[in-house]
């Protein structure tokens, strides 16, 4: 495993608070966009496991639950092999959310506008008119000749399930869940 990333502190090394104590935390500490983005990165996206749901919420193949990690929409789904996957709810084509339901059952996922189709494991399965449309003897549109489905899947999160609870991380280099300080039972 690689060396853990060192995260920048959210606040300056030696913040200057006007007055004494924490009852007078300045307004900027709650409203500065740069601090908020660093908090999101530190608490949800890097070097961190986040709870996404319970295995019991998705008992059957195709069952899914939409939830969020930080500000990012994710889908926890049971695949046909019985495995649990967590993927970001953002189409790889145009970056739009494709799943609107909070929970349900699906044989696959697709982006309603352009119809890109993904497996329950997040792999891109199909693109309509991939080779273009032939009209008047010539081909219009389509994807480039070097376009590869396997390079355009959904963002897949690292997943750990323990005691019926499911955790996920955007950071694939995050420490193993068993070594995480968040686990209490060993």
UniProtKB/TrEMBL annotation:
Domain (Rieske): residue spans on this chain: 49-168
SUPFAM superfamilies from the UniProt entry: ISP domain
Superkingdom of the organism of origin: Bacteria
Keyword hit for Metal-binding: yes
Keywords: 2Fe-2S, Iron, Iron-sulfur, Metal-binding, Oxidoreductase
Family note: Belongs to the bacterial ring-hydroxylating dioxygenase alpha subunit family.
Name of this protein: ORF2
């Amino acid at each position: 495993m690689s060396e853990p990333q060192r995260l920048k502190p959210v606040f300056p090394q030696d913040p200057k608070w006007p007055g004494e104590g924490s009852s007078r935390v300045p307004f900027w500490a709650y409203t500065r966009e740069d601090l908020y983005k660093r908090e999101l990165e530190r608490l949800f996206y890097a070097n961190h496991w986040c709870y996404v749901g319970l295995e019991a919420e998705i008992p059957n193949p195709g069952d899914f639950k939409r939830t969020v990690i930080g500000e990012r929409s994710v889908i926890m789904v049971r695949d046909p092999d019985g495995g649990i996957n967590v993927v970001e709810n953002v189409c790889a084509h145009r970056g739009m959310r494709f799943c609107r339901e909070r929970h349900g059952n699906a044989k696959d996922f697709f982006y309603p506008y352009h119809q890109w189709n993904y497996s329950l494991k997040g792999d891109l399965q199909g693109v309509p008119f991939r080779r273009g449309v032939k009209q008047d003897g010539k081909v219009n549109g389509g994807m480039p000749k070097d376009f590869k489905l396997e390079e355009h899947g959904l963002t897949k999160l690292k997943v750990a399930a323990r005691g019926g609870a499911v955790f996920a991380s955007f950071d694939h280099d995050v420490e193993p869940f068993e070594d995480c300080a968040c686990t209490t039972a060993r």
